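Q: what sequence does this backbone want?
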């Protein structure tokens, strides 16, 4: 079996993963993923019991029980670069023996549910709606370092054609959600009414999402071009900063992953939610109810 050196897989003196500070025996099979560390308690307060709280940097995790089953919630912070750390370390905790530094024969698949916020780039997807990302494309630089080819990967021909439409020269990648989790969420009346779409994961919040403050973007029409271009037969529905990395890593590493989004802004109509916390709270409560 593959051996992972102390410089490739850094393990803390207490036997926990380097950044997340989680020990293998603390890991649950189902974990809710949030970006904002302050949102962790808004999720874990719905658990029946919390037995572990861990805080290191922007990575906060709570583990406990819900309906008699182990459950967890973890904050990633902002961006695909943070997701790269989170996914590598979660997979290591699940599928590498920390005592021998060797890959386990029997692989463990985690159920990961991202609950986040996003902006619509289509006029007909309104503020305060919910959108489930069926697939996502990433504009960060991870595709220059990883081979994300898996059975969940999006067609390279479709991705190249999309880039041609928006005159974007750098490599992008794309992957789809877990069919198992899509089916689970489709059984709930609240999520059954949610929009389904293709999410664009941006490498930043301002210019990469079409915002201008004091520095001018060298791609001033980027958001408009993306909203009008097609990925295969479909248009891009929304934009955020993590989903593509979650989907790509999950596809390669064998984990089940879904991203559900509270649409707080419509970038075409320039509207923003009047009560964003209400939308986020409702999203959290309905998602957790599926596992109760």
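A:
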């Amino acid at each position: 079996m593959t051996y992972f050196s102390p410089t490739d897989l850094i393990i803390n003196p207490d036997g926990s993963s380097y950044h997340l500070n989680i020990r293998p025996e603390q890991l649950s099979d189902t974990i809710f993923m949030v970006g904002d560390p302050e949102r962790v308690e808004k999720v874990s307060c719905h658990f029946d019991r919390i037995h572990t709280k861990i805080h290191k940097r922007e990575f906060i995790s709570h583990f406990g029980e819900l309906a008699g089953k182990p459950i967890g919630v973890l904050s990633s912070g902002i961006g695909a670069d943070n997701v790269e750390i989170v996914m590598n370390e979660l997979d290591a905790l699940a599928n590498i023996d920390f005592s021998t530094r060797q890959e386990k024969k029997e692989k463990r698949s985690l159920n990961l549910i991202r609950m986040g916020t996003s902006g619509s780039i289509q006029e007909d997807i309104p503020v305060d709606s919910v959108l489930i990302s069926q697939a996502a494309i990433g504009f960060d630089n991870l595709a220059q370092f990883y081979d994300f080819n898996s059975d969940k990967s999006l067609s390279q021909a479709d991705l190249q054609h999309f880039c041609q439409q928006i005159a974007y020269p750098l490599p992008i990648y794309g992957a789809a959600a877990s069919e198992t989790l899509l089916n689970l969420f489709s059984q709930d009346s609240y999520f059954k009414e949610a929009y389904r779409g293709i999410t664009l994961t941006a490498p930043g919040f301002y210019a990469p999402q079409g915002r201008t403050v004091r520095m001018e973007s060298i791609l001033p029409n980027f958001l408009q071009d993306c909203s009008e271009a097609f990925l295969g037969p479909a248009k891009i529905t929304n934009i955020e900063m993590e989903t593509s990395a979650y989907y790509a890593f999950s596809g390669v590493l064998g984990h089940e992953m879904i991203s559900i989004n509270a649409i707080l802004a419509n970038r075409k109509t320039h509207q923003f939610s009047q009560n964003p916390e209400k939308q986020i709270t409702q999203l959290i409560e309905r998602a957790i109810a599926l596992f109760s």
